[in-house]
Specification:
- By secondary structure, this protein is mostly helical.
- 62% of the residues lie in helices and 0% in strands.
């Protein structure tokens, strides 16, 4: 899993580490090709293709259930579980401002 995440991380353009992790996790969960397609859709709609929340996450042609599962996966890992691990073990979340 860690190698695959790194492989995706190296292929995603994002505004900062938090946005990049979001796109990496989306790619891990649903495929990197979907991240790239969703970035193109965001750009075409005038949104920032390097920002996940409020931008890329709002655009996809996936089925409704697949969209929900993929977007919820990113939120669950970065906004729910990561802060719990950080508070227990120390360190800093890449999405500390959320």
């Amino acid at each position: 899993m860690a190698r695959y995440d790194r492989w995706i991380w190296q292929r995603v353009d994002a505004a900062d580490a938090c946005q990049r992790w979001a796109m990496t996790l989306s790619g891990y969960n649903g495929g990197l090709g979907w991240v790239w397609r969703d970035q193109k859709l965001a750009r075409a709609a005038g949104d920032d293709p390097e920002r996940w929340w409020g931008h890329v996450a709002e655009h996809t042609h996936r089925a409704g259930w697949a969209r929900r599962e993929n977007r919820d996966y990113v939120d669950r890992i970065l906004l729910r579980y990561t802060p719990q691990y950080v508070s227990a073990w120390g360190g800093r979340s890449p999405c500390y401002r959320f």
